[in-house]
Design a protein that fits this description.
heterodimer, A: 337 residues, mainly alpha, ABC transporter involved in vitamin B12 uptake, BtuC, two-stranded antiparallel sheet, 13 helices, 2 strands, B: 398 residues, alpha/beta, Rossmann fold, seven-stranded mixed sheet, five-stranded parallel sheet, 15 helices, 16 strands, 45% helix, 20% strand
Chain lengths: 337, 398
């Protein structure tokens, strides 16, 4: 029996908790991508850098708060700074929409044009971020680091394997649940949310029934900026903030959105967890788990690993390709919100 | 007939330029081509200052060749981008007309510069810190030297340290490049030959945000200690942080590129008890050098003494050859670095130049007690390090 719990703890420590955390981060990111796709009808490649921008402002404000001695122990001060980060990112996205996207929207440009324009926005934002905060690692975490330490867990339970739960992991998962719930409530139960869904469903019909398109676009960008800032900050808190990493995140985020069905918020969230767990499950080495569950005095030379950890990023690619071939609309047939 | 005439004319021009470059040189220019950006950027500044300190000292003595002044030009070889490294070296040779290059910092960049630029152009390349075993056997027309030992030697030392600590099994991860792979292979073969067990040896990529999956695999393989053959500003730091977060390993072995203050600051007290090795000696050369560096306004970081030695040896050999032509200088490097002769410590470069001018012999000891062996690399003595109370403390030299 102890062996079984050891194996379970092992999986919990290296697979389930990191998977839930990573999945939540991807889900929040994919939600932003999917909103832009559903309402504004283009793939926003600038989303990764928008996340980085939001996280950057949050970091700068966090440093300001820290120097003022402001803190919310044991939670990280960054949570206090997020609203300011959101505000700055909202202003940024609205400015970009006003001076870049609106021009193309008024001309009813092809989605491909939008996509290419968003790549331009991505490079512009990437440069801006590196210009302000530099390309290096930034550590802005404070507060209590661990809720449960591996060593303490071992002493508590007497098991061989430890289970650790970082504060940032718990914060990430809880925040993601709250944000997602709020998002659904907004889309399904408020007038504005309903008008957004109507606009996404059928633009012409929505316009005929008196929905103001500028207002829908405005609300969408505000939501996208808020989601991006929260996702970017949570990722930076849990891992570390480095501008380059957010560009790398773009692939799994898009994979999540597409796997779930792009344009569909439920799909984005499900897709986030599917991608996160596939990446981890396929690259995890199961040697010890097999040893615990197998018969006693079993010898095992191999690591029992499907793919080397170097192939982690390839997993999202593979899933993306498979989904696009077999079920192009994704798990929750997307295209509307 | 016409061809012969042209050939003779160009030979005459070449000959005269060589004569000019000979004993009557008024200026000497060295390229300092190091990885100022990239995974080892925190080491580069202190190294460049070290090399430039030696040049300043020689310039001030007015004893090199025809009382030549030594100037330098810096260029960024990066660490991982082989083509950027070659381009940087190409530039300092073509447009800055340097007489020799001190560099590069990382092994991959060094190999690229050696093969693509230094050999075709016939320019001496002296690296303070490239440690890949591949450089020992690479074709180099005798133009390549290094003030650091090969990792084949470091692998041996690391294996000895691990044995003495009673460690029977290790998990190992290495940065996926020439340096990482070379050192990891060397550690593995030495450790296994001594009866130890390497449970896993797996590469990691630098510059990622999350090393959870890598640490997961390492933790499954298990081991008494995790050997992190990486860079302290990059993946190496990420691996250690992730391992501590997940409670996968408590003790780490830190090879040379992981030794530095920035790691201690980033990780904090959890790093206490970890061990490591970095090239170093107990000769008083190191101490003298540290003081010289302080007087010049910088901290003598890892490989900074080696950089000083690389520049000093190059300049001393120029004096011994009475020429700044790389092909003449390369033949004299061994003569000035090794016995017999008067021992020369850091800060005594003027004395060394004086002896060479008088036709005498010197044995350059320098900041790292450098002794060249084989194809022109340091024989290598190492400082064994224990992280204690948030500082790298010296256990002993070996």
């Amino acid at each position: 029996m102890t062996d079984f719990f050891n194996a379970l703890t092992l999986l919990g420590n290296f697979l389930i908790i990191p998977g839930l955390t990573y999945g939540s981060q991807l889900a929040l990111g994919a939600l932003g991508v999917t909103l832009v796709y559903g309402v504004l009808r283009f793939s926003n490649f600038g989303h990764g850098e928008t996340m980085a921008f939001g996280a950057m402002v949050t970091i700068l404000v966090t440093w300001g708060f820290q120097s003022l001695g402001l803190s919310i122990q044991p939670l990280p001060t960054a949570l206090l700074a997020i609203p300011v980060g959101i505000l700055a990112t909202v202003i940024l996205t609205l400015l970009i929409d006003r001076f870049v996207y609106r021009y193309h929207r008024e001309r009813k440009a092809n989605p491909v044009i939008f996509l290419i324009v968003s790549i331009g926005v991505m490079f512009f934002l990437g440069g801006l971020i590196r210009f302000i905060i530099g390309p290096g690692d930034q550590i802005f975490f404070d507060g209590t680091r661990f809720i449960l330490k591996a060593r303490e867990f071992k002493q508590m339970t007497g098991l061989n394997e430890g289970l650790s739960l970082k504060m940032t992991q718990a914060v990430t998962i809880i925040t993601a649940v709250i944000i997602v719930a709020a998002m659904f409530w907004f889309l399904n139960h408020t007038r504005t949310g309903k008008s957004m869904r109507a606009y996404s469903d059928n633009e012409n019909l929505a316009l005929l029934s008196g929905i103001n398109p500028d207002r829908v676009v405005l609300i969408t960008w505000i939501l996208v900026a808020a989601l991006a800032t929260i996702a970017g900050t949570l990722y930076g808190l849990d891992k570390s903030f480095k501008p380059f990493v957010y560009m790398q995140l773009l692939l799994p985020i898009f994979a999540s959105a597409i796997v779930g069905g792009v344009g569909n918020p439920i799909g984005a969230i499900a897709g986030g967890y599917v991608i996160a767990f596939s990446e981890l499950i396929l690259t995890f080495a199961y040697k010890k788990v097999v040893l615990y569950l197998g018969p006693d005095n079993m010898e095992l030379e191999s690591l029992v690993q499907f793919l080397g950890t170097d192939y982690k990023i390839a997993v999202s690619f593979i899933i993306l390709v498979i989904v696009l071939i077999i079920r192009p609309t994704g798990l929750f047939s997307g295209k509307t919100i | 007939m016409k061809k012969t005439a042209i050939a003779m004319a160009s030979a005459a021009i070449l000959g005269s330029s060589v004569a000019l470059a000979g004993g009557h040189a008024k200026t000497v220019k060295l390229g300092v081509v190091l990885g100022f950006t990239g995974p080892a950027e925190s080491l580069a500044e202190s190294m460049a200052r070290g090399a430039e300190l030696a040049m300043k000292e020689v310039s001030a003595s007015k004893l090199l060749l025809d009382s030549a002044t030594v100037s330098h030009v810096r260029a960024d070889s990066t660490c991982v981008d082989a083509s950027a490294a070659a381009a940087a070296a190409e530039r300092v040779i073509a447009s800055d007309k340097v007489d020799a290059i001190i560099g590069a910092l990382c092994s991959g960049a060094t190999i690229s510069i050696l093969q693509n630029v230094a050999m075709p152009k016939g320019v001496l390349l002296f690296s303070p810190s490239a440690t890949s075993p591949a450089l020992s056997t690479l074709e180099d027309n005798d133009l390549f030297f290094r003030a650091s030992p090969s990792d084949a030697r470091q692998g041996q030392v690391i294996s000895e340290v691990l044995q003495e600590k009673g460690i029977k099994s290790i998990a190992m991860t290495y940065t996926n490049n020439d340096y990482g792979k070379g050192l990891a292979d060397s550690i593995q073969s030495n450790f296994e030959a001594a009866g130890g067990k390497v449970t896993i040896s797996t590469p990691h990529e630098d510059g990622k945000g999350d090393y959870g999956a890598e640490v997961g695999a390492l933790a499954q393989a298990g081991g008494d200690i995790l050997v992190v053959v990486g860079y302290l500003d990059q993946g190496g730091k990420g691996i250690i942080q992730s391992s501590l977060d997940a409670g996968a390993f408590d003790q780490f072995f830190l090879p040379d590129a992981m030794i530095g203050d920035s790691l201690l600051q980033a990780i904090g007290p959890d790093l206490n008890g970890s061990i490591g090795t970095v090239p170093g000696t107990d000769s008083n050369g190191a101490q003298i050098y540290a003081e010289l560096a302080k007087k010049d306004g910088f901290e003598a970081g890892p490989y900074s003494p080696e950089a000083y030695d690389a520049a000093a040896l190059t300049l001393l050999a120029m004096q011994a050859a009475n020429s700044k032509d790389s092909n003449a200088v390369k033949a004299k490097i061994f003569d000035v670095a090794n016995a017999p002769g008067t021992k020369i410590l850091p800060g005594e470069l003027a004395k060394g130049l004086q002896i060479l001018k008088g036709g005498g012999q010197i044995d350059y000891v320098g900041a790292t007690a450098v002794e060249l062996i084989g194809a022109g690399e340091s024989s290598g003595s190492y400082r064994e390090i224990l992280v204690k109370d948030g500082e790298n403390t010296t256990v002993r030299y070996r």
